[in-house]
Amino acid sequence: METEASRVVARVRGLRMAYAGTDVLTGVDLDIRAGEVLCLLGPNGAGKTTTIEILEGFRMRSAGEVTVLGQDPAHADEDWRARTGVVLQSWRDHPRWSPRRLLDQLGGYYAPYSTPERPRPYGTDDLLATVGLTELADRKLATLSGGQRRRLDVAVGIIGRPELLFLDEPTAGFDPQARREFHHLVRRLAESEGTTILLTTHDLDEAEKLADRVLILAGGRIVADDTVDGLARRVAGDAEVRWSMGGERFVESVADATSFVRGLFERHGEGVADLEVRRASLEDAYLALVQQHESGRADSAARLFRDATQSEVDA
Ligand SMILES: Nc1ncnc2c1ncn2[C@@H]1O[C@H](COP(=O)(O)OP(=O)(O)OP(=O)(O)O)[C@@H](O)[C@H]1O
């Protein structure tokens, strides 16, 4: 039986895109499930923005099937647009307007699409507070810093309380505090409002914090599709255990860190100090995959992940 969490809100099969005869996407397959935060990663020029713009209905694909919230984004109607939210990589508007005026204006467009479950739009004051712009609400847009401008972009993206939100490098230019607040906002949108989110980022720490699932785009295709933990486990199976004993430091690579540490304490008890267990991070997994791709082994990278996924399904 289909549950809310397993409902597919976007389905992409065999997506291809060529610019002036140069292939960028050569067969992208992906599903986005209701309520998840999905991170799309990949090197510069891999085609992340291209993919996201096709899903947003802002770019015409060369070939393939794309369904987002039940419609083909290339021919979707106004009602569909009101159910999606978009934060583009860059955006220009009226430099003399203020954040409050811009949000009031844009919010008005969503009011006719309000439903009891999803009252639209978000109240301007609440939204300004949510993105940390209350104090700058009446300043001219032209005077905002890059990071402040980006916060406004995020506000614009969520003002219509979208069911599906696309965020293309949303935190580029954020300071660490703004970034942390933004991460809380993304989790809150996903957990309290049930918003499904597709985001691209080059910040692997951000992906690790936010993603329910990660997709890696390389060589025109998705070469990995898994949770952060799943990716890390597949690329580097062993964990590194470090400890000190009697003034000496020890390091051991082990497949099962829990039983190794249990054994260590059984043998040496309180003699063990400064214990650390380090697992492969998303960064390790990402770099291994991209390196594999860049050395011309995209197919073997994709196979590695498909095989691993298959053996888990079979088990
Ligand atoms: N309008 C366009 N016309 C021609 N080529 C384009 C166009 N838009 C993108 N490209 C090319 O397509 C490729 C993919 O670009 P895209 O912006 O989708 O990549 P990306 O993964 O988002 O990169 P980044 O991480 O640098 O933002 C790049 O080689 C880019 O130069």
From TrEMBL:
GO terms for biological process: response to antibiotic. SUPFAM superfamilies: P-loop containing nucleoside triphosphate hydrolases (SSF52540). It holds the Pfam family ABC_tran. It is a peripheral membrane protein. The keyword rRNA-binding does not apply. Keywords: Antibiotic resistance, ATP-binding, Nucleotide-binding, Transport. One of its GO terms (molecular function) is ATP binding. GO terms for cellular component: plasma membrane. Residues 10-244 form the ABC transporter domain. Its main location: membrane. It is found in: Cell membrane. The keyword Coiled coil does not apply. Belongs to the ABC transporter superfamily. This is ABC transporter ATP-binding protein. It comes from Nocardioides seonyuensis.
